[in-house]
Amino acid sequence: MTDKRNTDVATYIQRGNEKGSNKRAIYYYRKALELEPDNYVAYYHWGEKLSSGLCDGTTTEWHGGKRQLLKVVELTTEAIKTNPQDINALWYRGNAYERLNFAVEAINDFSKVIDIEPDNVEVYKRRADLKFYCGNSKSKDLLGAIDDYSKIIVLTNDKNYYHVRAWVKEELHLYHEAIEDYTLGIEAGINDYYFYRARVKEVVYDYEGAIDDYLKGIEIAPRFRYYMGLCKIYYNKNEIDQAQEYFDKAIELAPDIDEKDMKLYFNNLAVATS
Question: Is the pLDDT reported for residue 64 higher than 90?
């Protein structure tokens, strides 16, 4: 009987997760909680739906999911007191903390999961993103984010994380290290990285290197942003005729863009080089 009840609880939660409508999803989460009132997984997904802004506004359940997420914290904390190695409880509490904007607490829980499962890629991703993207000065840890993204690359061999790691390095003004990451991505066959490497080369005044990267990008796949990159470099070098030539080529690739948008794009294309 217990196994059947557990199966029903899991089925109800799954059905709730599959529903796009909050009303229909909440119905299934409530059914799960009728069978197991302290099921923090059901409370978490209920709170997640509401905190994601998916509510249609026609139900009194709209509280941004805070009540449900606080219940997750309460129930998982009790579970962790009983078993400090309870990875599931630590994971869900960390996620609840994240959605409640308690970034420091979320990072602490994700770190505990990693202590228990040092090769858990998904937890590294969540912790790294919190350290990098979170605006809370107490939780922002750019060097720690670099370490986590490096671990993700080792565990997954996912070359796309070179880009994310390079972003962090750019924020730390480690421009030459960021260039090295984009180079690793290019060597792995990610051609879009020519654009990003060129932008960083501009920052360190390596205009010739940036020009080479933009031209290489054009050779592979002519794009508006490559021509605009060249336009801006030659404009900054006060070589106006050359800048105009690349500007005209960019316009050919985006004939419908209006003058106002073009100026805005031009001004924000790359980090200022002055």
Answer: no
